[in-house]
Automatic annotation (TrEMBL), chain A:
InterPro entries: NADH_Q_OxRdtase_suD, NDH1_su_D/H, NiFe-Hase_large. It is a peripheral membrane protein. It comes from Paludisphaera mucosa. Residues 133-406 form the NADH-quinone oxidoreductase subunit D domain. This is NADH-quinone oxidoreductase subunit D. It catalyses: a quinone + NADH + 5 H(+)(in) = a quinol + NAD(+) + 4 H(+)(out). Its EC number is 7.1.1.-. Keywords: Cell membrane, Membrane, NAD, Quinone, Translocase, Transport, Ubiquinone.
Automatic annotation (TrEMBL), chain B:
NDH-1 shuttles electrons from NADH, via FMN and iron-sulfur (Fe-S) centers, to quinones in the respiratory chain. The immediate electron acceptor for the enzyme in this species is believed to be ubiquinone. Couples the redox reaction to proton translocation (for every two electrons transferred, four hydrogen ions are translocated across the cytoplasmic membrane), and thus conserves the redox energy in a proton gradient. The keyword Cell membrane applies. It is found in: Cell membrane. Keywords: Cell membrane, Membrane, NAD, Quinone, Translocase, Transport, Ubiquinone. Its EC number is 7.1.1.-. It catalyses: a quinone + NADH + 5 H(+)(in) = a quinol + NAD(+) + 4 H(+)(out). The keyword Cell membrane applies. This is NADH-quinone oxidoreductase subunit C. InterPro entries: NADH_DH_suC (IPR010218), NADH_quin_OxRdtase_su_C/D-like (IPR037232), NADH_UbQ_OxRdtase_30kDa_su (IPR001268), NADH_UbQ_OxRdtase_CS (IPR020396). It is an enzyme of class 7 (translocase). Belongs to the complex I 30 kDa subunit family. NDH-1 is composed of 14 different subunits. Subunits NuoB, C, D, E, F, and G constitute the peripheral sector of the complex.
């Protein structure tokens, strides 16, 4: 249902002075991250919204030119800190495409699993926080409790709960062990209960429905014109998903649906995210069921990825390769070329435009950040809504400040 | 080096975009480079809008997926312009994609804005302006986006040091009384 937009007000000069300005953020409890909005209000109605970004800017793209392809994974983790493994997958996907590498089947499956776990984790926070902002605290707690179990998986697989830094060029930090698989099974086992609890709390909740439906309407044409991607675009009826339409990793092996809605309001985006979580669970189940055996890293002869500890300490080749890769002015050679490669992140197309100059340092690392693009749509879709709708729309766009500012 | 990644089905869709573009403009309007599964075309700033409009209206590339810049100062083996701006376009029906690149040079790097074709380019062009100082003619609101307005340098240029030149320390300090 399209938003019942009010007519553009015909303000005379006296009434124009009656609008007032509200600084919303940068640190506001309802924005979760550091966002600054300057709202021009007529009573409670928003006449104009001006987002100001850059508060958190820390030069991530410049750092990418001074860290090598393996080191930079710690920075990409911090771009979207709600779903770090997906950023890692995206970054090394671009690097491996630049180098022309084909990953081992086991590595591809593991990357699909951690990527989908990150998607579930991101959507849990997004949908849970949307509920929290609109007054439903319990749903948020259910969602966050499951996120804790996903953190347990990260901790078991890499040693870090929040920023795993798990992928490497041509492979992974460690292989999955049995305890990781057990913890993933635990997440999958808990998911239906959490999903059921959240849907019982929210799907027929009159307050929640009224606050979400018809709010923040984005038409299909606008979603395309404004370069929206992911659940924001799919909530407006743009049926496009890189996992299906430009497949990467092992995604062609899995059977899943791409949910989409035609409504284009906050409710549609919320529902798309909820359904995507179920599809992600199904993908992980399929990947676990047919997880290939074999190595996760490319063979040592490729001279690309850091050998694991056993190889480093027990073989001369491993020791030499480890030395070559970690010493400054060594490392592997890259083609003097450039490439654009993207994956379907939780919020949409997460791409990297990489320019390489032959050394192990990238010449240029450009991130295509979904939050940045979606926040530029915000002034357009919030117009003529109420002040209280700001948090609903912000939540439904899932704006992450670190990804905005980089 | 191991074998190249397996070619995916969308490579054919990329080639279809290129042939549609050649059919509509002739191949004098751009030069083509290919790397892995990327098809990259280089155009001059004068013909940029013409090529992008043709891609949007006649080749089905209605979606501007990405826009960004790069500085090639002292890039190995390079003789072209200092800066380049890339546009990644997608055809949402066939999943084809194409990368369009336009080069500009010092001292006054200027490109036509694509805001009229894609309003989504608004912030992306502002970011390129903020980081590289490339101006976009016809952009409705070309201001700094990440850096504060007082900032004078362009931080992603290659001749700008990683740790800055001390601009941050020279900003006027606002006390609570003055604010």
């Amino acid at each position: 249902m399209p938003a019942p937009l009010l007519d553009e007000p015909e303000l005379d000069s006296e009434a124009k002075q009656a609008t007032w300005t509200l600084n919303f953020g940068p640190q506001h409890p309802a924005t979760h991250t550091t966002l600054r909005l300057i709202l021009e209000l007529d009573g409670e109605r928003i006449v104009k919204a001006t987002p100001h970004i850059g508060y958190l800017h820390s030069g991530f793209e410049k750092l990418g030119e001074h860290l090598n392809y393996n080191q930079y994974v710690t920075i990409v983790d911090r771009k979207n800190y709600i779903s770090p493994p997906m950023n890692e997958v995206a970054w090394h996907h671009a690097v491996e495409k630049l180098m022309g590498l084909e990953l081992t089947p086991r590595c591809q499956y593991i990357r699909v699993i951690i990527g989908e776990l990150a998607r579930i984790s991101d959507h849990l926070l997004c949908t849970g926080a949307a509920a929290l902002d609109l007054g439903a605290f319990t749903a948020f707690l259910y969602a966050f409790n499951l996120r804790e179990q996903i953190y347990d998986v990260y901790e078991e697989m890499s040693g870090y709960r929040f920023h795993p830094g798990y992928t490497r060029v041509g492979g992974l930090l460690y292989d999955f062990n049995d305890r990781v698989l057990d913890k993933i099974r635990k997440v999958l086992h808990s998911f239906p209960q959490v999903f059921g609890d959240m849907s019982k709390l929210l799907f027929r909740n009159r307050i929640f429905l009224d606050r979400m439906r018809g709010v923040g309407y984005l038409s299909k044409a606008d979603a395309i014109a404004y370069s929206c991607a992911g659940p924001v675009a799919r909530g407006s009826g743009v049926h496009y998903d890189l996992r299906k339409d430009a497949p990467y990793l092992a995604y062609p092996d899995f059977d899943f649906e791409v949910p989409y809605c035609e409504e284009g309001d906050c409710w549609a985006r919320f529902m798309v995210r909820m359904e995507e979580m179920r599809q992600s669970v199904s993908i992980i189940q399929q990947a676990m069921a047919k997880l290939p055996t074999g190595p996760v890293n490319l063979p040592i002869a490729e001279k690309l990825n850091l050998p694991d500890k056993a190889t480093t300490y027990n073989s001369m080749e491993g020791l030499i390769q480890h030395f070559e890769l970690v010493m400054p002015n060594r490392g592997f050679e890259t083609p003097v070329e450039e490439i654009y490669a993207a994956v379907e992140g939780p919020n949409g197309e997460l791409g990297y435009y990489l320019v390489a100059d032959g050394t192990e340092f990238a010449w240029r690392v450009r991130t295509r950040p979904p939050s940045f693009i979606h926040f530029s749509v915000f002034p357009h879709i919030i117009k003529n809504h109420m002040l209280a709708d700001v948090v609903a729309v912000l939540g439904s766009l899932s704006i992450i400040a670190a990804e905005l500012d980089r | 080096m191991s074998t190249a990644a397996t070619p995916s089905a969308d490579v054919a869709a990329d080639a279809a975009i290129l042939s549609a573009l050649t059919a509509s403009l002739g191949d004098g309007a751009f030069t083509v480079a290919r790397f892995r599964d990327n098809i990259r075309i280089h155009v001059t700033p004068e013909r940029l809008i013409e090529v992008l409009t043709a891609l949007k209206t006649r080749c089905g590339c209605v979606y501007l997926a990405e826009l960004g810049g790069a500085d090639y100062l002292k890039y190995p083996g390079r003789s072209g312009t200092r800066f380049e701006v890339h546009y990644v376009l997608r055809n949402l029906d066939t999943s084809g994609k194409i990368v369009v690149k336009a080069g500009v040079d010092d001292p006054d790097p200027t490109l036509p804005s694509v805001y009229s074709l894609w309003p989504g380019a608004d912030w992306m062009e502002r970011e390129v302006f903020d980081m590289y100082g490339i101006r976009f003619e016809g952009h409705p609101d070309l201001r700094r986006i990440l850096m504060p307005d007082e900032f004078t340098a362009f931080p992603l240029r290659k001749d700008y040091p990683l740790r800055g030149r001390g601009e941050r320390h020279n900003f006027p300090k606002l006390t609570r009384e003055e604010s």
